[in-house]
Amino acid sequence: MPSPETPSASIALFDLDHTLLAGDSNELWLGFLVARGLIDGAAVMARQAHYLADYTAGRLDILTYLEFQLEPLAGRTLESLHPLREAFAATQLAPRIAPGAAPLIAHHRAQGQRCAIVSATHRFLADPSARLLGIDNLICTEAEVVDGCFTGRISGEPCFRERKIDHVRAWLATLGAEPDDALRQAWFYSDSANDLPLLEAVGHPVAVDADIRLSAVAAERDWPRISLGFPPMRFACAPAPCLS
After folding, report:
1. Cα 208–233–56 angle (5° rounding)?
2. For this structure, is 61 an active site residue?
3. Helices marked H in 134-234 — which ranges?
């Protein structure tokens, strides 16, 4: 968490899956569709497990994975999917918002900082979590829509690894901020070593319920390490003030 003297113009950035959300958005979505008999559960969940193993190992082909994520949406309109997504948000996402997420976000806002989620997940799946968390700024992968329908492809570059920096810099430019200065003042919270490029780019990197690779880097570099997880919310080596 920021110290009291942190400039009020600074920003706080948050990864979503396994950071603010105790789970993976796409895995939860696919499980939800399986439970409703809308997709082939065994085949789809096996593919999901394969992609998550690649993600954990740092070898994920993000474009292929995003195509897989978008398959259930292809050819359908947002309007037609909206009731399904609302049910998904209520039953799968809301119960999995990390208990420590709201206090952490509130702390940064109390310091006058602008909060944003930065996620590789595409907007259709990331937006409900952002709304549940009360965060208006969502920087994420965009799904392509043509004639009102999802195509099953992404629009632009994925918001993943080093490309997260590009997406954040573009967002900062829309605010009229000088990106380099803003990043030097920024906080970024993440669980994954895949986010090391953005963690290294900000002035205040924080490892949250970190994976093995990120835990090792955070320990070596003396980065703050915290947990927002299901109870209790624990803070180890966290910057003051502590929210425990």
Report:
1. 30
2. no
3. 163-174, 179-185, 196-201, 212-221
Of these residues, 17, 24, 191, 209, which one is catalytic?
Answer: 17
Burial class of residue 55, CB neighbours in 10 A (0-12, 13-18, 19+): buried
Sorted by where each starts, the structural domains of the chain and their CATH numbers stand as: 11-236 (3.40.50.1000)
Active-site residue, from 15, 195, 209, 211? 15
Q: Is the pLDDT of residue 17 over 70?
A: yes
Residue 189 phi, psi dihedral angles, 5° rounding: -110, 125
pLDDT-based confidence at residue 244 (cuts at 50, 70, 90): very low
Please give the Cα distance from 38 to 30 (Å, whole number). 9
| Mean pLDDT of all residues belonging to the chain | 90
15: annotated active-site residue: yes
